[in-house]
Amino acid sequence: MRVCECDNMRMRKKIMMKKNFLTGLLASITFFAFAQNTDKAINVKETERIEKILSSDEMQGRKTFTPAIDKAADFIQKEFKTIGLETPNNSGTYLQDFYLSQTKFISAKARFDNDTIATKNIVVFTSNPELYINEDSGYIKAFIKPGDNFNTEAFKYIQSEKSYLVLVDTSFSKEIRRMASYKRPSFNKPRSAIFILTTLNPNKYEIEVKHEVSKLKLANVVGILPGKTKRNEFVIFSGHYDHLGIGKPDAKGDSIYNGANDDASGTTAVIMLAKYFKQLDNNERTLIFVAFTAEEIGGYGSRYFSEQYDPAKVIAMFNIEMIGTESKWGTNSAYITGYEKTDMGKILENNLQGSKFEFHPDPYTPQNLFYRSDNATLARQGVPAHTISTSKMEEAPNDEPNYHKQSDEISTLDLKNMTEIIKAIAISSSSIVAGKDTPSRVDAKTLK
Length: 448
Fold this sequence. Notes:
4-stranded mixed β-sheet
């Protein structure tokens, strides 16, 4: 009996439909099994308990260099201890202490060839109380030219491990004044960055600067869950626990910047994920759970943390920032910054097959969010380090109405949706935690 080609086509189509149905059914069953496990450790009641404490008025906005942030750190430490995480290097403490240098300007003078530079045109980032340099001091000469992105260029030199003399075009006079008034603390390192507003490019120069320097103590909170078979391969889950503290009262008389979404929500997620993976007890790779300090004043916590680990051993970083509100796509969705830079997003999406949750590429790329959170330092070293967020970073009225305001309180959060996001992070990271998937690395050539 002869079978026509159309019958063969119908048969193949039926087989494919059945195969797709079985694949989808298997994915749904697998996701349902994962979801049942997550419900035990990740639930709305627990989300509310942790979030409520971190964003309470008692925490006074968790500003760096205040007793309030120490109180928040103590709470996170206790949570890590209750969960049963190990301390870094078996140190006996979850606090990763470090110091910043706070400088108070005393004087500055400079001479370029035969010209004297006005003090108001000199801005110096240093941890040294006294500096005297000339053309033989080994400083690298750099330029910020007309049309450059001033903030991007300046940040590059401030962050560098080398010392720079940066000649800034006079078109950036406002930026230099602003930089002088908003100078931030720095790491206690020998290198310095000197910015001078000028039209000159001197062959010979002398610069003398004096500061009063004091040391300021800060601490990240870090807990470890050692891997079963891949102990030297690290997967990081992070959020920052600092915020803005207390300011002028708003129209309602509220002076506390509670930071419920920014970023008590991310810190809550880190604690809950630690509890989940500890209970699961099957992570092949070592998991590091960290609450960063000083994100709001320059990302110093994540920068110091990154120096403690060999980036080649860091397999992935899930940085969690502001997940307490619905994304632009509604509930059961979030976006990943720098999505196109690695295949990590695709791995997460694959692990969520069968669920209602969706990850999207960052829709706010003009805002440079990939470079504005605690993932950036490790990403610049090639680590697939991404931030997961739901925050709407658009222009008003479609942005986050409570961002960096006293009104960022727990009452403005969708705790049910936030809990689902934390579950999605737990499930989507499963194959990376298990050592089955390894995301591609960030190509440094694609970074700004």
